[in-house]
Design brief:
This protein has a domain of 75 residues. 38% of the residues lie in helices and 15% in strands. It has 14 helices and 14 strands.
């Protein structure tokens, strides 16, 4: 079986993530291809798309949010993601059990003894009037019945697990500051969520299909590999948070090809997906906080050194140089500052500065193009 070293995996990841060459895709198609963008920090997806798309206009993403074609919702890993409306409707039921388990695990002591079906019914009754509410407002509306847990456990269980919700604009709109206010997903979109899962996302009364008993899981695997492959099953689980995908993997295995990585793990991939030459040049790219190009894997060694792995979960914005995390970056008073994690060559400093100037102009809407490379942090 062919072994793909880290550099080969790195170039494949960059190609799938639209980071090797900026793409000419429409914004909606890019969000769909990427299987959504992690978005607990509302402005970060704009940076992620700017780094991936040619001539990206941030107003186009804002228009998709206000036009209800993309939504902000808790999904993969119980994290807020920006996903297409179609994907939110198709994928949400498959994530229900995971979302409930993770929210319950975070507040196991506080929520002990709470009947979650009753809590969900009470929350839906409150939201049935169609009025947006913040998480604390929704929690206060049911707290008389469940006073012991406190508002935060009740609110998070309702908006992040029990009731499929969206965070409404203007939260997530370009350069807007707004708190999170929620409506049920089906109410906001005027469309029903795909039928709920009866058993870990698999309806036992539904006949097997060519995709096996878990067609949503099979579709997720194909979509994940198109945007992240080649990847191991553990990487897939780390990305979506779903443990129950063996049936889906088995159903699609015959249409996939396999490799090994340097650790000996089996990697799955789509036959015709891009796997560029490992020597393909990789341009400098500035990534937002919590970018899925890094967080979408259990083994992140293809793009970030183990010594810096903590940056990926700490909310640091990072810079890719030759395809790997080589600096962090900040912006203050219109100036983008990159702080290297290793010594830069003169050419690397120039390339980082030039890309930083373009980013500064984007973030300031042309009012600043100031960028600098600080002294190395090592």
């Amino acid at each position: 079986m062919t072994v793909l070293d880290n550099r080969a995996l790195n170039r494949a990841t960059l190609a799938r993530q639209l980071l090797l060459d900026r793409a000419d895709l429409p914004v909606l198609d890019a969000v769909g291809h990427l299987c959504g963008l992690q978005a607990q920090e509302p402005q970060e997806p704009f940076i992620g798309l700017w780094s991936r798309l040619r001539a990206f206009d941030p107003s186009s993403l804002s228009d998709l949010l206000t036009g209800r074609r993309v939504v902000r919702t808790h999904l993969m890993r119980r994290t807020v993601h920006l996903v297409t409306a179609d994907d939110a409707l198709a994928w949400r039921a498959r994530h229900d059990a995971m979302l409930r388990q993770r929210a319950q695990g975070a507040y196991r002591r506080e929520l002990d003894g709470v009947d979650f079906d009753e809590l969900a019914a009470a929350g839906r009754a409150v939201m049935a009037d169609g009025e947006p509410r913040s998480m604390p407002e929704l929690a206060r509306a049911v707290a008389d019945r469940w006073p012991e847990p406190g508002l935060r456990p009740l609110g998070e269980m309702l908006v992040a697990a029990l009731i499929p919700m969206v965070q409404l604009p203007p939260r997530g709109v370009w350069r807007a500051r707004a708190g999170a206010r929620y409506l049920p997903l089906a109410t906001w979109l005027g469309r029903d969520i795909d039928p709920p899962a009866a058993r870990n996302g698999i309806d036992p009364d539904t006949p097997d299909t060519p995709d096996g008993p878990d067609p949503v899981g099979a579709a997720l695997i194909r979509r994940y590999l198109a945007a992240y492959g080649p990847a191991a099953s553990a990487d897939l689980r780390a990305w979506c948070g779903l443990a129950g995908l063996p049936a889906a993997v088995a159903a699609v295995r015959e249409e996939l090809i396999t490799f090994r990585d340097e650790r000996g793990r089996e990697l799955l991939d789509l036959p015709d997906a891009p796997r560029p030459d490992p020597d393909t040049p990789a341009p400098v790219r500035f990534l937002p906080a919590f970018d899925n190009a890094i967080l979408g894997y259990q083994d992140r060694g293809r793009i970030i050194d183990d010594a810096h792995r903590g940056l990926s979960v700490a909310g640091a914005r990072v810079v890719l140089v030759d395809g790997r995390v080589a600096a962090t970056w900040t912006v203050e008073d219109g100036t983008v500052t990159a702080t290297p994690l290793r010594p830069f060559s003169r050419a690397e400093r120039t390339a980082v500065t030039e890309q930083g100037q373009e980013l500064a102009a984007f973030l300031s809407e042309g009012e600043s193009d100031r960028a600098r490379v600080a002294e190395s942090s090592v």
